[in-house]
Prior knowledge:
About 0% of the residues have low confidence. The chain is flat and about 100 Å long. By secondary structure, it is mainly α. Strand 1 and strand 2 form a beta hairpin. Helix 3 packs antiparallel against helix 8, helix 8 runs antiparallel to helix 11 and helix 11 packs antiparallel against helix 12. The longest helix is centred in the middle third of the chain and has 58 residues.
Amino acid sequence: MAAANQLFAWEGTDKSGKKTKGEIKSSNANIAKAELRKKGINPTKVKKKSGGFALASFGAKVTPADIALFTRQLATMMKAGVPLVQSFEIVADGMDNPAMKELILKIRDEVSSGQSFAHAIKTQPEHFDDLFCNLVEAGEQSGALETMLDRLAEYKEKSEQLKAKIKSAMNYPIAVLVVAGVVSGILLVKVVPQFEEIFAGFGAELPEFTQMVVNMSRFMTEWWFAGLAGLAVVFFTFKQMHKRSKTLRDGQERLMLKIPILGDILDKSCIARFSRTLSTTFSAGVPLVDALESVAGAAGNVVYLEAINKIREEVSGGIQLNTSMKASGVFPNMVIQMVAIGEEAGALDSMLDKAASYYEEMVDNSVDGLTSLMEPIIMSFLGVVIGGLIIAMYLPIFSMGDAISGK
């Protein structure tokens, strides 16, 4: 499949040395330069012109899910015997995300100009981490790039499934709490003041619960803007501090592991990620010490990052992996025993793969259980909050009759 031609603006000199410029359509900048030289022009600058495609990609961004899809499709193309550069073109043509399409075409241009695939993706560190780059490099050097891409695709897909599962469990209660807050705010600001005017006309003393809600309504009505501004300032300040302070991020990650139920899920997901990443890198032929360095970067939590770094130091000193893992105190006995069996049998990657699958399934079951548990709790919470406000407004109705009859 021929690559779609793109419009390039060029500047250069002709045969007489006179400066000239113009536009040319070509599949990439290098081919455009070659075509210009054939015409007797020495190009000094060739740059792709921005057009509708650039406008379409404005605001779009490349997501980890896009990288996982790209890896899987590229592995499929190469397994089918399609050359690497042509595989890039086919995969890019099928991408819906214009930003991802642009990224793939940049990589294709690098590779078609003579650079290695690993070198091309190393120039895009915001999209391809060290683990991805190292495995691609190992695949190119061993002549088994399609096999390595297949393993990477499986790793990326499972990692994204795991993250999506946890995010979905968190998004549900957050969304419900936001809706509850909005509804409560509307009731306090718009509805309660109307009831307060009605109650004031009857001269009856309001029940304590109703009076408390009325006071909340007055406060919300008078200070809602200041409250929203304060929340915005707190959120922005925390976000900036979280971004700049490693101590704050580390403290938050440590705290997250101690939260009941949720902490257990995050703990299991870290173990699954450790097992899956180490299995993928070690099976690719990466030495164990180097593999552990990549695994530490993909740990996802500072507790495991520190533990894995310590394990790597001990393993490089000659200590067995299972012994070092046991000394770290963060890995469960089952994983340690499976690693020990794998080391003795010379099948460490296989045992780690089984451990990863087991803990990924445990995370799935835990998340499903948490979601099932949250539903009745959230419904009860909504009933108490919204129902409480409604009850507070109707309590005075029971004393209205007494106020009207003069009792």
